[in-house]
Design goal:
Blueprint: H1 2-13, H2 20-40, H3 48-68, H4 75-83, H5 89-100, H6 104-139
Helix pairs in contact: 1-2, 1-4, 2-3, 2-4, 3-4, 3-6, 5-6
């Protein structure tokens, strides 16, 4: 869990708008998201897209909390660094490897799985940012 949080924090550090406080926020948010994902993996009946959406929501909420408390400065960097935990890079690589090896059906199935994961990430972050912008933003 710590290595995953460190990897996400380092990725956030590579973004130009990221400060050291944002790196720390990304590490903490990623650590929390890792444990939420580990907990959700205990429920095999829960759909992959729903799991990723819920973890992405935790990451976005953590980023908003860091920004609103004044700890972090760049919400974008914290969210982008945090969702690196969920990005299906290995699945896409294996999909294209399968296709190039002639296993077209297996490759297409893996690509569809990666797309479903990406949709879940986008939905999770999008829903939280939508309600933050139009819900809490209207109150404050």
């Amino acid at each position: 869990a710590l290595t995953m949080a460190l990897a996400c924090a380092v990725f956030a550090f590579m973004l130009e708008s990221c400060t050291l406080k944002d790196v720390l926020c990304t590490g903490v948010v990623s650590y929390l998201a890792y444990w939420v994902l580990a907990y959700l993996n205990r429920f095999p009946s829960l759909h992959l897209m729903v799991k990723n959406a819920m973890v992405a929501m935790v990451i976005a909420l953590g980023a908003i909390l860091c920004i609103e408390t004044g700890i972090g400065r760049s919400m974008d960097a914290i969210i982008i660094g945090g969702i690196m935990l969920l990005v299906p890079g290995v699945a896409l690589t294996n999909a294209f490897r399968d296709i190039l090896n002639g296993d077209i059906l297996s490759g297409v199935i893996r690509i569809v799985e990666a797309i479903i994961i990406a949709i879940g990430i986008a939905l999770g972050v999008g829903i939280v940012l939508f309600f933050y912008t139009y819900g809490l933003g209207a109150l404050g």
